[in-house]
Amino acid sequence: FRKSELGRISLDILRSLIMTATAAEVSPRAYLTWALSQPEDDIKKKPHLYTPLAYREQLTAAPSLQAIAS
User: Fold this and answer.
1) How far apart are CA 22 and CA 18, in angstroms?
2) Measuring CA to CA, how many Å separate 44 from each of 28, 40, 41, 58, 65?
3) What is the pLDDT of residues 47-61, one digit of tens each?
C-alpha cells in the first residue's frame, strides 16, 4: 500500500474511517459492514445519515441492530 500514491491515499481513507468509528464508540468492522450494505443512491443523497455517529444513534434507537453489530 505505502509504495504508491494511490496506496497511501487508500490507507489514509481506511485509517480515517477506523478512527472516526472509534471516536463514535462503534465497532469499525460493524460500521463498515453496515455502511457498505446501504444503497449507494441513499448515501449520495443524504451522506450525513451514514456517518459513524449516525450509525451509533441508529443503534441506540433500534436495539435489534445492536445484536447485529456485536
Assistant:
1) 6
2) 21, 6, 5, 19, 23
3) 999 999 999 999 988
